[in-house]
Amino acid sequence: MDGQALILRNVSNYISITGEEQAYFLSLLQSRNYHRKEYLQREGSNCNNFTFITTGCVKSYLLDQKGDEHILTIAPADWWVVDYMSFVFEQPGNLFIEAIDNTSTLILTKEKREELFRKLPQFERYFRILTERAFAVSQQRVTDILSLTAAARFEKFQQRYAHIAASLTQQQIASFIGVTPAFFSRMLKAKRK
Amino acid sequence: MDGQALILRNVSNYISITGEEQAYFLSLLQSRNYHRKEYLQREGSNCNNFTFITTGCVKSYLLDQKGDEHILTIAPADWWVVDYMSFVFEQPGNLFIEAIDNTSTLILTKEKREELFRKLPQFERYFRILTERAFAVSQQRVTDILSLTAAARFEKFQQRYAHIAASLTQQQIASFIGVTPAFFSRMLKAKRK
DNA sequence: GATCCGGGTTGACCTAGGTCAATCCGGATG
DNA sequence: CATCCGGATTGACCTAGGTCAACCCGGATC
Protein backbone atom coordinates (compact mmCIF):
# COMPACT_ATOMS: atom_id res chain seq x y z
CA MET A 1 0.00 0.00 0.00
CA ASP A 2 1.43 3.41 -0.85
CA GLY A 3 1.50 6.40 1.48
CA GLN A 4 -1.54 8.10 0.02
CA ALA A 5 -3.66 4.99 0.27
CA LEU A 6 -2.47 4.53 3.85
CA ILE A 7 -3.43 7.99 5.00
CA LEU A 8 -6.80 7.84 3.25
CA ARG A 9 -7.55 4.57 4.96
CA ASN A 10 -6.56 6.13 8.26
CA VAL A 11 -8.91 9.07 7.69
CA SER A 12 -11.73 6.78 6.66
CA ASN A 13 -11.53 5.05 10.03
CA TYR A 14 -13.09 8.17 11.51
CA ILE A 15 -14.93 10.12 8.83
CA SER A 16 -16.19 9.38 5.36
CA ILE A 17 -15.30 11.64 2.48
CA THR A 18 -15.91 11.51 -1.27
CA GLY A 19 -13.29 10.78 -3.89
CA GLU A 20 -13.13 14.44 -4.75
CA GLU A 21 -12.57 15.41 -1.16
CA GLN A 22 -9.89 12.78 -0.88
CA ALA A 23 -8.07 14.27 -3.85
CA TYR A 24 -8.30 17.71 -2.32
CA PHE A 25 -6.99 16.49 1.01
CA LEU A 26 -4.06 14.74 -0.66
CA SER A 27 -3.26 17.89 -2.62
CA LEU A 28 -2.53 19.69 0.66
CA LEU A 29 0.08 17.15 1.69
CA GLN A 30 3.70 17.27 0.83
CA SER A 31 5.74 14.10 0.87
CA ARG A 32 9.22 13.91 2.24
CA ASN A 33 11.68 11.16 3.07
CA TYR A 34 14.22 10.98 5.83
CA HIS A 35 17.00 8.55 6.41
CA ARG A 36 17.80 6.91 9.70
CA LYS A 37 19.06 9.45 12.28
CA GLU A 38 17.90 12.44 10.28
CA TYR A 39 15.93 15.08 12.19
CA LEU A 40 12.42 16.08 11.27
CA GLN A 41 12.49 18.72 13.96
CA ARG A 42 15.02 20.17 16.36
CA GLU A 43 14.75 21.61 19.82
CA GLY A 44 14.31 25.36 19.71
CA SER A 45 12.51 25.57 16.41
CA ASN A 46 8.78 26.04 16.02
CA CYS A 47 6.89 22.97 14.97
CA ASN A 48 4.38 24.12 12.41
CA ASN A 49 3.17 20.91 10.89
CA PHE A 50 1.58 17.57 11.45
CA THR A 51 3.66 14.75 9.97
CA PHE A 52 2.13 11.45 8.99
CA ILE A 53 4.46 8.45 8.87
CA THR A 54 3.83 6.24 5.85
CA THR A 55 6.78 3.91 6.26
CA GLY A 56 9.56 3.64 8.83
CA CYS A 57 9.55 4.92 12.37
CA VAL A 58 10.26 8.10 14.28
CA LYS A 59 10.86 9.10 17.88
CA SER A 60 10.32 12.40 19.67
CA TYR A 61 12.44 13.09 22.73
CA LEU A 62 14.00 15.79 24.80
CA LEU A 63 17.51 16.15 26.14
CA ASP A 64 17.80 17.15 29.76
CA GLN A 65 20.52 19.28 31.36
CA LYS A 66 22.87 16.34 31.57
CA GLY A 67 22.32 15.55 27.92
CA ASP A 68 20.32 12.42 28.63
CA GLU A 69 17.61 11.52 26.20
CA HIS A 70 14.01 10.99 27.27
CA ILE A 71 11.71 9.57 24.63
CA LEU A 72 8.22 11.05 24.66
CA THR A 73 6.67 9.24 21.72
CA ILE A 74 7.47 6.54 19.22
CA ALA A 75 5.56 6.83 15.97
CA PRO A 76 5.53 3.90 13.56
CA ALA A 77 3.83 3.88 10.15
CA ASP A 78 0.18 4.99 10.07
CA TRP A 79 0.78 7.46 12.91
CA TRP A 80 1.06 11.24 13.20
CA VAL A 81 3.93 13.01 14.96
CA VAL A 82 3.90 16.59 16.16
CA ASP A 83 5.47 18.57 18.93
CA TYR A 84 2.05 19.57 20.27
CA MET A 85 3.38 21.97 22.86
CA SER A 86 5.17 23.93 20.18
CA PHE A 87 2.48 23.55 17.53
CA VAL A 88 -0.48 24.45 19.71
CA PHE A 89 1.05 27.32 21.61
CA GLU A 90 3.21 28.52 18.75
CA GLN A 91 6.39 28.60 20.74
CA PRO A 92 9.85 27.08 20.25
CA GLY A 93 9.72 23.40 21.02
CA ASN A 94 12.00 21.49 23.32
CA LEU A 95 11.65 18.24 21.48
CA PHE A 96 13.76 16.61 18.84
CA ILE A 97 11.98 14.45 16.33
CA GLU A 98 14.29 11.97 14.68
CA ALA A 99 13.91 9.07 12.26
CA ILE A 100 14.98 5.79 13.79
CA ASP A 101 14.60 3.97 10.47
CA ASN A 102 14.54 5.29 6.96
CA THR A 103 11.11 6.77 6.83
CA SER A 104 8.75 8.45 4.42
CA THR A 105 6.20 11.00 5.51
CA LEU A 106 3.36 13.20 4.39
CA ILE A 107 3.45 16.69 5.80
CA LEU A 108 0.43 18.84 6.57
CA THR A 109 1.44 22.36 7.53
CA LYS A 110 -0.48 24.44 10.02
CA GLU A 111 -1.78 26.73 7.27
CA LYS A 112 -2.84 23.86 5.05
CA ARG A 113 -4.58 22.28 7.99
CA GLU A 114 -6.51 25.47 8.66
CA GLU A 115 -7.40 25.61 4.99
CA LEU A 116 -8.55 22.02 5.23
CA PHE A 117 -10.78 22.85 8.18
CA ARG A 118 -12.32 25.71 6.25
CA LYS A 119 -13.02 23.67 3.13
CA LEU A 120 -13.84 20.34 4.77
CA PRO A 121 -15.04 20.85 8.32
CA GLN A 122 -15.40 17.09 8.77
CA PHE A 123 -11.69 17.11 9.35
CA GLU A 124 -12.30 18.92 12.61
CA ARG A 125 -13.98 15.72 13.63
CA TYR A 126 -11.12 13.59 12.38
CA PHE A 127 -8.56 15.51 14.39
CA ARG A 128 -10.84 15.77 17.39
CA ILE A 129 -11.20 12.01 17.62
CA LEU A 130 -7.53 11.43 16.94
CA THR A 131 -6.51 13.84 19.66
CA GLU A 132 -9.01 12.57 22.20
CA ARG A 133 -7.56 9.10 21.81
CA ALA A 134 -3.99 10.28 21.99
CA PHE A 135 -4.83 12.36 25.04
CA ALA A 136 -6.45 9.42 26.79
CA VAL A 137 -3.33 7.35 26.22
CA SER A 138 -1.13 10.18 27.42
CA GLN A 139 -3.14 10.49 30.64
CA GLN A 140 -2.72 6.80 31.16
CA ARG A 141 1.01 7.20 30.71
CA VAL A 142 1.11 9.88 33.39
CA THR A 143 -0.69 7.70 35.89
CA ASP A 144 1.52 4.76 34.98
CA ILE A 145 4.69 6.73 35.64
CA LEU A 146 3.24 8.04 38.87
CA SER A 147 2.03 4.75 40.26
CA LEU A 148 3.92 1.82 38.76
CA THR A 149 7.42 0.44 39.18
CA ALA A 150 9.77 0.31 36.21
CA ALA A 151 9.14 -3.42 35.84
CA ALA A 152 5.37 -2.94 35.70
CA ARG A 153 5.72 -0.15 33.18
CA PHE A 154 7.83 -2.42 31.04
CA GLU A 155 5.16 -5.12 31.23
CA LYS A 156 2.58 -2.70 29.92
CA PHE A 157 4.94 -1.46 27.28
CA GLN A 158 5.46 -4.97 25.97
CA GLN A 159 1.75 -5.58 25.70
CA ARG A 160 0.90 -2.24 24.15
CA TYR A 161 3.82 -1.99 21.74
CA ALA A 162 4.40 -5.65 20.96
CA HIS A 163 4.50 -4.95 17.23
CA ILE A 164 7.31 -2.41 17.35
CA ALA A 165 9.20 -3.50 20.46
CA ALA A 166 11.32 -5.89 18.41
CA SER A 167 12.64 -3.13 16.17
CA LEU A 168 13.77 -0.92 19.04
CA THR A 169 17.07 -1.04 20.88
CA GLN A 170 17.06 -1.62 24.62
CA GLN A 171 18.28 1.91 25.11
CA GLN A 172 15.22 3.25 23.39
CA ILE A 173 12.81 1.11 25.35
CA ALA A 174 14.60 2.05 28.56
CA SER A 175 14.32 5.73 27.73
CA PHE A 176 10.65 5.38 26.85
CA ILE A 177 9.69 3.70 30.09
CA GLY A 178 11.89 6.13 31.98
CA VAL A 179 14.92 4.22 33.24
CA THR A 180 18.61 4.12 32.34
CA PRO A 181 19.96 1.51 29.92
CA ALA A 182 22.09 0.05 32.71
CA PHE A 183 19.15 -0.43 35.01
CA PHE A 184 16.99 -1.76 32.21
CA SER A 185 19.58 -4.39 31.38
CA ARG A 186 19.62 -5.55 34.98
CA MET A 187 15.84 -5.63 35.00
CA LEU A 188 15.80 -7.95 32.02
CA LYS A 189 18.37 -10.18 33.61
CA ALA A 190 16.29 -10.44 36.76
CA LYS A 191 13.22 -11.32 34.69
CA ARG A 192 14.96 -14.01 32.65
CA LYS A 193 15.97 -15.86 35.74
CA MET B 1 -21.41 35.30 36.57
CA ASP B 2 -23.64 32.24 36.59
CA GLY B 3 -22.69 28.83 35.27
CA GLN B 4 -24.44 29.17 31.94
CA ALA B 5 -22.80 32.49 31.21
CA LEU B 6 -19.45 31.00 32.16
CA ILE B 7 -19.68 28.04 29.82
CA LEU B 8 -20.94 30.19 26.96
CA ARG B 9 -18.02 32.52 27.41
CA ASN B 10 -15.70 29.54 27.43
CA VAL B 11 -17.17 28.26 24.18
CA SER B 12 -16.99 31.67 22.60
CA ASN B 13 -13.25 31.71 23.16
CA TYR B 14 -12.96 29.14 20.40
CA ILE B 15 -16.02 29.30 18.16
CA SER B 16 -18.84 31.78 17.60
CA ILE B 17 -22.42 30.65 17.75
CA THR B 18 -25.74 32.47 17.55
CA GLY B 19 -28.08 33.08 20.45
CA GLU B 20 -30.33 30.33 19.24
CA GLU B 21 -27.46 27.89 19.06
CA GLN B 22 -26.40 28.92 22.53
CA ALA B 23 -29.84 28.14 23.86
CA TYR B 24 -29.79 24.76 22.16
CA PHE B 25 -26.37 23.96 23.57
CA LEU B 26 -27.48 24.91 27.06
CA SER B 27 -30.56 22.74 26.72
CA LEU B 28 -28.32 19.68 26.43
CA LEU B 29 -26.61 20.36 29.73
CA GLN B 30 -27.76 19.18 33.07
CA SER B 31 -26.66 20.99 36.15
CA ARG B 32 -25.62 19.25 39.31
CA ASN B 33 -23.99 20.22 42.57
CA TYR B 34 -21.60 18.30 44.72
CA HIS B 35 -20.36 18.98 48.19
CA ARG B 36 -16.78 18.71 49.29
CA LYS B 37 -15.52 15.11 49.22
CA GLU B 38 -18.42 13.89 47.15
CA TYR B 39 -17.55 11.71 44.16
CA LEU B 40 -18.48 12.63 40.63
CA GLN B 41 -17.07 9.35 39.43
CA ARG B 42 -15.67 6.21 40.97
CA GLU B 43 -13.04 3.75 39.87
CA GLY B 44 -14.57 0.85 38.01
CA SER B 45 -17.52 2.69 36.56
CA ASN B 46 -17.75 3.92 32.99
CA CYS B 47 -17.34 7.62 32.54
CA ASN B 48 -19.90 8.66 30.01
CA ASN B 49 -19.95 12.40 30.30
CA PHE B 50 -17.97 15.59 30.13
CA THR B 51 -18.40 17.69 33.25
CA PHE B 52 -17.87 21.43 33.23
CA ILE B 53 -17.00 23.04 36.56
CA THR B 54 -18.84 26.31 37.11
CA THR B 55 -17.80 26.93 40.69
CA GLY B 56 -15.59 25.03 43.11
CA CYS B 57 -12.83 22.59 42.31
CA VAL B 58 -12.41 18.94 41.54
CA LYS B 59 -9.55 16.43 41.39
CA SER B 60 -9.16 13.21 39.45
CA TYR B 61 -6.82 10.59 40.85
CA LEU B 62 -6.09 6.91 41.04
CA LEU B 63 -5.34 4.72 43.99
CA ASP B 64 -2.42 2.33 43.58
CA GLN B 65 -2.06 -1.15 45.10
CA LYS B 66 -0.89 0.30 48.38
CA GLY B 67 -3.87 2.62 48.49
CA ASP B 68 -1.81 5.71 47.85
CA GLU B 69 -3.47 8.49 45.92
CA HIS B 70 -1.96 9.92 42.73
CA ILE B 71 -3.62 13.05 41.42
CA LEU B 72 -3.89 13.18 37.65
CA THR B 73 -5.72 16.46 37.18
CA ILE B 74 -7.03 19.35 39.19
CA ALA B 75 -9.94 21.15 37.60
CA PRO B 76 -11.01 24.57 38.92
CA ALA B 77 -13.98 26.59 37.67
CA ASP B 78 -14.17 27.14 33.90
CA TRP B 79 -12.62 23.72 33.24
CA TRP B 80 -13.85 20.36 31.99
CA VAL B 81 -13.17 17.06 33.78
CA VAL B 82 -13.47 13.62 32.23
CA ASP B 83 -11.86 10.28 32.65
CA TYR B 84 -10.73 10.27 29.03
CA MET B 85 -9.42 6.73 29.08
CA SER B 86 -12.79 5.46 30.17
CA PHE B 87 -14.84 7.87 28.08
CA VAL B 88 -12.96 7.43 24.83
CA PHE B 89 -12.46 3.69 24.95
CA GLU B 90 -15.76 2.98 26.70
CA GLN B 91 -14.22 0.87 29.38
CA PRO B 92 -14.37 0.96 33.19
CA GLY B 93 -12.21 3.78 34.47
CA ASN B 94 -9.55 3.55 37.12
CA LEU B 95 -9.92 7.12 38.23
CA PHE B 96 -11.86 8.68 41.01
CA ILE B 97 -13.18 12.17 40.45
CA GLU B 98 -13.90 13.97 43.68
CA ALA B 99 -14.95 17.47 44.66
CA ILE B 100 -12.34 19.17 46.82
CA ASP B 101 -14.63 22.12 47.46
CA ASN B 102 -18.36 22.44 47.17
CA THR B 103 -18.78 22.63 43.45
CA SER B 104 -21.44 23.10 40.84
CA THR B 105 -21.23 21.56 37.43
CA LEU B 106 -22.88 21.29 34.05
CA ILE B 107 -22.96 17.80 32.64
CA LEU B 108 -22.85 16.90 28.96
CA THR B 109 -23.43 13.20 28.43
CA LYS B 110 -21.80 11.26 25.64
CA GLU B 111 -25.11 10.93 23.81
CA LYS B 112 -25.93 14.62 24.12
CA ARG B 113 -22.46 15.46 22.92
CA GLU B 114 -22.94 13.30 19.83
CA GLU B 115 -26.28 14.97 19.27
CA LEU B 116 -24.55 18.32 19.61
CA PHE B 117 -21.97 17.34 17.00
CA ARG B 118 -24.74 16.33 14.62
CA LYS B 119 -26.73 19.52 15.05
CA LEU B 120 -23.87 21.97 15.48
CA PRO B 121 -20.71 20.62 13.89
CA GLN B 122 -18.79 23.71 14.99
CA PHE B 123 -18.58 22.00 18.34
CA GLU B 124 -16.27 19.46 16.78
CA ARG B 125 -13.91 22.38 16.44
CA TYR B 126 -14.46 23.51 19.99
CA PHE B 127 -13.60 20.12 21.40
CA ARG B 128 -10.76 19.62 18.97
CA ILE B 129 -9.05 22.79 20.10
CA LEU B 130 -9.75 22.10 23.74
CA THR B 131 -8.30 18.62 23.50
CA GLU B 132 -5.26 19.66 21.51
CA ARG B 133 -4.38 22.13 24.23
CA ALA B 134 -4.98 19.69 27.01
CA PHE B 135 -2.94 17.08 25.18
CA ALA B 136 -0.03 19.47 24.69
CA VAL B 137 0.01 20.18 28.41
CA SER B 138 -0.21 16.49 29.21
CA GLN B 139 2.80 15.76 26.98
CA GLN B 140 4.69 18.44 28.78
CA ARG B 141 3.80 16.83 32.05
CA VAL B 142 5.20 13.50 30.88
CA THR B 143 8.51 15.04 29.88
CA ASP B 144 8.63 16.96 33.14
CA ILE B 145 8.18 13.82 35.20
CA LEU B 146 10.76 12.02 33.09
CA SER B 147 13.43 14.70 33.16
CA LEU B 148 13.04 16.98 36.17
CA THR B 149 13.67 16.58 39.89
CA ALA B 150 10.82 16.93 42.34
CA ALA B 151 12.00 20.43 43.26
CA ALA B 152 12.01 21.57 39.63
CA ARG B 153 8.55 20.11 39.06
CA PHE B 154 7.32 22.02 42.06
CA GLU B 155 8.81 25.23 40.67
CA LYS B 156 6.87 24.74 37.46
CA PHE B 157 3.75 23.84 39.36
CA GLN B 158 3.90 27.06 41.33
CA GLN B 159 4.19 29.13 38.19
CA ARG B 160 1.52 27.30 36.24
CA TYR B 161 -1.03 26.91 39.02
CA ALA B 162 -0.36 30.02 41.05
CA HIS B 163 -4.07 30.87 41.19
CA ILE B 164 -5.19 27.60 42.74
CA ALA B 165 -2.08 26.53 44.63
CA ALA B 166 -3.20 28.46 47.69
CA SER B 167 -6.45 26.54 48.00
CA LEU B 168 -4.77 23.14 47.91
CA THR B 169 -3.32 21.21 50.81
CA GLN B 170 0.32 20.22 50.72
CA GLN B 171 -0.71 16.61 50.39
CA GLN B 172 -2.57 17.40 47.20
CA ILE B 173 0.29 19.34 45.69
CA ALA B 174 2.72 16.60 46.68
CA SER B 175 0.54 13.98 45.04
CA PHE B 176 0.16 16.07 41.90
CA ILE B 177 3.88 16.57 41.41
CA GLY B 178 4.46 12.94 42.31
CA VAL B 179 6.11 12.82 45.73
CA THR B 180 5.00 11.81 49.23
CA PRO B 181 3.71 14.42 51.68
CA ALA B 182 6.64 13.69 53.99
CA PHE B 183 9.20 14.32 51.30
CA PHE B 184 7.35 17.39 50.10
CA SER B 185 7.38 18.88 53.56
CA ARG B 186 11.15 18.39 53.77
CA MET B 187 11.53 19.94 50.33
CA LEU B 188 9.71 23.07 51.46
CA LYS B 189 11.81 23.27 54.58
CA ALA B 190 14.99 23.06 52.53
CA LYS B 191 13.74 25.84 50.24
CA ARG B 192 12.75 28.19 53.07
CA LYS B 193 16.24 28.09 54.47
C1' DG C 1 41.85 -10.39 9.63
C1' DA C 2 42.43 -6.00 12.33
C1' DT C 3 39.82 -2.13 13.71
C1' DC C 4 36.05 0.26 15.06
C1' DC C 5 31.68 1.21 16.82
C1' DG C 6 27.31 1.01 18.78
C1' DG C 7 24.93 -1.54 21.53
C1' DG C 8 24.60 -4.40 25.99
C1' DT C 9 26.44 -6.06 30.56
C1' DT C 10 28.41 -5.79 34.89
C1' DG C 11 30.57 -4.26 39.32
C1' DA C 12 31.01 -0.98 43.05
C1' DC C 13 29.10 2.65 44.85
C1' DC C 14 25.63 6.60 45.46
C1' DT C 15 21.32 9.36 46.17
C1' DA C 16 16.65 11.03 45.55
C1' DG C 17 12.92 10.07 47.41
C1' DG C 18 10.04 6.47 50.12
C1' DT C 19 8.42 4.31 54.67
C1' DC C 20 6.66 4.16 59.17
C1' DA C 21 5.59 5.83 63.21
C1' DA C 22 5.63 9.52 66.56
C1' DT C 23 4.53 14.24 67.45
C1' DC C 24 2.60 18.72 66.70
C1' DC C 25 -0.79 22.09 65.62
C1' DG C 26 -4.96 24.63 64.56
C1' DG C 27 -9.45 24.84 63.97
C1' DA C 28 -14.11 22.45 64.10
C1' DT C 29 -17.46 20.07 67.20
C1' DG C 30 -19.88 19.16 71.29
C1' DC D 1 -13.10 24.05 77.86
C1' DA D 2 -12.03 19.29 76.16
C1' DT D 3 -11.88 16.42 72.32
C1' DC D 4 -11.09 15.19 67.90
C1' DC D 5 -9.41 15.23 63.39
C1' DG D 6 -6.98 16.18 59.38
C1' DG D 7 -3.14 18.14 57.95
C1' DA D 8 2.08 19.05 58.57
C1' DT D 9 6.57 17.93 60.53
C1' DT D 10 10.29 15.18 61.90
C1' DG D 11 13.55 11.32 62.93
C1' DA D 12 15.59 6.89 61.76
C1' DC D 13 16.00 3.92 58.42
C1' DC D 14 15.35 1.79 53.60
C1' DT D 15 15.33 0.94 48.50
C1' DA D 16 14.53 1.62 43.60
C1' DG D 17 16.96 3.14 40.42
C1' DG D 18 21.09 6.23 38.99
C1' DT D 19 26.23 6.79 38.02
C1' DC D 20 30.57 5.85 36.14
C1' DA D 21 33.73 3.28 34.24
C1' DA D 22 35.35 -1.07 32.52
C1' DC D 23 34.44 -4.75 29.53
C1' DC D 24 32.16 -7.63 26.08
C1' DC D 25 30.29 -8.75 21.68
C1' DG D 26 28.72 -8.87 16.92
C1' DG D 27 28.71 -7.00 12.73
C1' DA D 28 30.29 -3.25 9.48
C1' DT D 29 34.35 -1.27 7.29
C1' DC D 30 38.93 -1.11 5.32
Textual characterization of the structure:
Two copies of one chain form a homodimer. Chain A has 193 residues and is of the alpha+beta class. In chain A, helix 8 (170-177) crosses helix 9. In chain A, the strands form two sheets. The first copy, chain A, has a four-stranded antiparallel β-sheet. The longest helix of chain A is centred in the C-terminal third of the chain and has 26 residues, at 122-147. In chain A, 50% of the residues lie in helices and 23% in strands. Chain A contains nine helices and eight strands. In chain A, a hairpin with a 5-residue loop joins strand 4 and strand 5 (69-76). Chain A has a domain at 3-121: Jelly Rolls (Sandwich), CATH 2.60.120. Chain A binds a DNA duplex (30 and 30 nucleotides) through helix 9.
For the largest interface in this structure, which chains are involved and how many residues does each contribute?
A-B, 38 and 38 residues
Which class do the helix and strand fractions of chain A yield? alpha+beta
- What is the CATH class designation of the domain at 3-121 in chain A? Mainly Beta
- Our measurement of the CA-to-CA distance between the termini of chain A, rounded to an integer number of angstroms, reads 42 Å
Strand content of chain A: 15-25%
Total count of helical runs of at least 4 residues of chain A: 9
Order of helices and strands of chain A: HHEEEEEEHEEHHHHHH
Low-confidence stretches of chain A: none
Quickly give the CATH architecture of the domain at 3-121 in chain A.
Sandwich
- Tell me the helix content of chain A: 40-55%
CATH superfamily of the domain at 3-121 in chain A: Jelly Rolls
Largest sheet of chain A: 4 strands, antiparallel
Radius of gyration over C-alpha positions of chain A, nearest whole angstrom: 18 Å
Shape category of chain A = globular
Major sheet: arrangement of strands of chain A: 1-8-3-6
Tally of strands of chain A = 8
Oligomer: homodimer
